[in-house]
# Entry
Amino acid sequence: MGRHQTGYLYKTSGGWHVRYWVTELRNGQPVRVQKSQKLCDAEVNGEKVTKSYAKDCRDEYMNGVNALSGTNDTRDLSVKEFWESQYLPHLEKHKRPSTLTGYKQIWKQHLEPHFVATRLTMRRYGTPQATRLLTSLAENGQGRRSVAHVRSLASGLFRHAKQLGIILENPWRESGSLVKPKEPQPTQNYTLEEAEAIANALHEAGHPREQLIFCIAAFAGLRPGEIAGLQWPDICEDEEREIGGGRWTGWVHIRRAVVNGEVGKTKTDESVAAVPLIPELRLMLSVWRTHCANGSTRWVFENRVGDPINLDVVARNIIIPTLRAKGLTWKGLYSGRRSAGTLLTQLTGNALAAFYVLRHKDLATTTGFYIKATAEPAVAGMRLLGERMAERKLKALAAGSDGQSK
# Structure
């Protein structure tokens, strides 16, 4: 059993560091070795990092070191043991629920079976094994993004182990698939006509709740988790704001997200914002508020026990069967979000409108993944080009005729 250490905290070379001891196997013999790890910068954005904050960083880091010592730090852990005892608790503490859900799925589907099958420990696992996994994923039809996600999570796991002094090198750093993974399928969105048809079909079938859920995605651009996380104080149908010399009435405030039934933070800090509501959506929300005992419920969309509704279940049990009966295609709520970005850009000619509503971290994400190319702008542009060419031709003919007359 390793002894508990608090670690020696000190400041040098522009950062706060901790010094501690670990036992390593060298030539088959345990040897006590002193280690040092940088915890954080001494100054961030011109402000000094306090010693109190540095102590918190040290305590968190040393918790990991001591936990490994408690399991006998001379023993070479299996990858699964390290995931369960160290890396997963680290992720649960620092990652948002939506990110954590994705990581757990990747681990369960791809990484855990691989690491268990190889029977290799953290120190024995190498780049060839990592490369073989990535190559097999590509050969079995996994797309480029899926392969990249697997590599990213595994590399993060081993990088964490290296930072704790468990391994000397990260074997995933030089890994890669030996065959080219297939390109990902293009993401989908709804046209305005498709979105209107879906909203009308749900209304005609007597599903106002499902209609409203879809319209919030398609005409306000909220993510599914943000829709599930809406509470009535977030809905401000009568709120007025001075915008560009005019006034806009009706806003929805995004403050949280619900992922897999867990209430947590939004996907990014930038996602916490207010989004304007079109009049039709304001009216639908007002009607639904009345239906929900004038907004006395906590959540805008609640289940029978008063918890946030499961949108996947709603889609599977109500939306998809209703649309199928009408001959309409369901592409998912996220496709509604993409539709909002595409429609706003088409109507305004400015991607900043979509960027504001979708609340991405940067404009490149909006333009790269959420604005879909359509034929209408191209045709409109070609029409303008043709008109301009015809106008220039007429001017040239007129100038030629004037010269001949002279």
Q: What stands out?
A: Residues 192-370 form a domain with the hpI Integrase; Chain A fold (CATH 1.10.443.10). The mean pLDDT is 86. The chain has three domains: 1-75, 79-185, 192-370. The two ends are 107 Å apart (CA to CA).
